[in-house]
Amino acid sequence: MKQFDEKFNAKRYRTANSTTIVSITLVLFMLGLVLLLVINTGRLTSFFRENIGITVSIKNGADAEDVLALRSLIEKQAFVKSTIYISKQQAADQLKTDLGEDFIDFIGYNPLPPTLEVFLFEEYTYGENLNIVEAFLRQQAIIESIEYQHTLITLIEQNIARISRVIIIFSLLLLLISVLLIHNTIRLAIYSKRMLIKSMLLVGATQCFIRRPFIVNGILQGLISSMISIVMLLALLIITNHKLPDLDIFKNSLIIGLAGLLIVAFGILISWLSNLIAIKKYLKLNSEALY
Question: How confident is the model at residue 4 (pLDDT cuts 50, 70, 90)?
Fold first, then answer.
């Protein structure tokens, strides 16, 4: 019966130990995600602002040479990052694809104007600078209308801030769960070795000597968890960089490296501290009981 209890306790300890590592890994992953979001918030904002263009509609009947001249003039301006010209036919083909039917056959003509998508550098997507850009475009005779999605940019920035807050709250919740799991794991470890610990206390072993294997195990838990979370974060960064190459996420590789070191340090710290508090409390109670 005693052997069965020992095996059962050992199995519970291994399960709790694995659960603790998973929990700490999730905490560190979420905290790392928050850290990377904070680091790249400016880059994300700049990316979105520079990839939402001003839609410039050209008047129907405008000469092709005039359109090319207008595009050339616009591209020479200091505030312009790039332009894309969409002809009447290209616009019609895109709308056919979106609608799933040929609207030209129904109405008998193509009502869509040729357009220019004008993409600005970030500093010209704000306030007065944006007004200057709009004023310049409205001075061009062959431009029919100008559309710029101000609300979309504001919505994107608000969502980035909202997502960051949600991740922070979720990370704090996971941190609390991890601390509780670590504490429970240490209690199981102590319980499975309670007779050995009491024997060591009776023969005069110091508390520091008894604590050492538990502390080392805690440090290993933090180290393993931090390594797994870093691998997960790197995978996420690689996927994001592949999907959005313009972000150039790995440009600040030094900052990403420092973020990785912070994750390792924090993982080791919470595991070490939780283990230290739990085993110290247990040894104090048992020492007082013995004497």
Answer: very low
